[in-house]
Specification:
430 residues; alpha/beta; Fumarate Reductase Iron-sulfur Protein, Chain B, domain 2; FAD/NAD(P)-binding domain; 3 domains; 5-stranded parallel beta sheet; 16 helices; 18% strand
Amino acid sequence: MEQGFTMNQALAEASRCLLCHDAPCAAGCPASTAPDVFIRKLRFRNIKGAAKVIKERNIMGGACAVVCPTHALCAQGCTAAGLDKPIRIGELQRFIVQYAWDVGFQPLKAGQPNGVQVAIVGAGPAGLTCAAELAKAGFGAVVFEKRSAAGGMLQWGIPNHRMSREFFAHELEDIRSLGVEFRFNTPVETQADVDKLRADGFAAVFVATGAWRCTTLDVEHREGSGLEDSMSFLVRAKDQPDAVRKELTGAEVLVVGGGDTAMDAAVSAKRAGARDVSIVYRRSFQEMPGSPEEKQAALDAGVHFVILTQPVDYVIADSKITGARVVRTRLTTEDASGRRRPENLPDTEHVLAADLIIEAIGLSPDPSVRKLDALTIGDGERIVVSEGQRASTDLPLYAGGDAVSGASIVVKAVRDGKAAAEAIRKELGR
């Protein structure tokens, strides 16, 4: 993980802020982290006060500082861009949060216990935020997580070069310090599981199981080694770096997709020693959904971009994938996303050789959520909620994060967790 701002760098960057009265940066944060307020405090060297502002509004303030696409959120409307360039809000936020960790400053406290327990299913950003907000209000927040550690995608899917587990461990400690209880390796996947939680005395349940199901290409030949989904690869690269390095040293890798996950997979493969890593994407470079920072990081790492190219099948020899059969594309009219639709060009088929192909073309909620009978499941296996993240008219059952929205960004999951905690607090009259 790269070094963050020094004190002098942070103060110099904060001094560029124009201290807008009606700051557009504040309106750009889905979690209402209030960058205008914490930058003002930093500018006047009240760093602990700045940390308090961040953590009171966003318990995941450290992680959001690192992984948020600030160019499309808080920094998008930054007034300073009219004079020079936007304030580097994410880097300032990271500096402030890390400063608090370094000096041992903990601005949050658990509320007076009210004797009411709430179950949170899933320890990703939405679940962690809901748990922390409830603990601050005096509830007993118990998080049930089917994996062996908390964090969801932040723990398993973000490469160490972007955010190390050591960094994220501080964020988790902030949450534990509020008295949040974790029960790992404990899946809650059926209506019977939820009913048991209710029978065990939990007054409400918040479901935040994320979006872990990887979309795959619909091609004829898939049955061979050397084909992997992005999440499996990223988890391996993070948990077993030596084994992945041994596997990839000198290899040729193709990554299919154009989002941040594709960039993460490509850079991770390159850092693991792959000779050549190419991102294959059917539209143009500009239309890639990946953030500018992540695309630039991939370029800096030496990743190749094979644009306007669509895989149509995989090549298999001796039960091993040896390449992707691709065609060139051209862009036509705009589709529902506002991007121009790719169209395959005739007589352009060719093969790109590869020792490993990683598919990074999308994530969606797992269809196992259909086992929760009290939930309404909509398009894309997403849980349907009403105001306040309410997911059932009959039970105090709530949902949020990627399980509701589909794969999205961390700060929006934080927003959902806060909204659900507030709704639960109001419903239970506390």
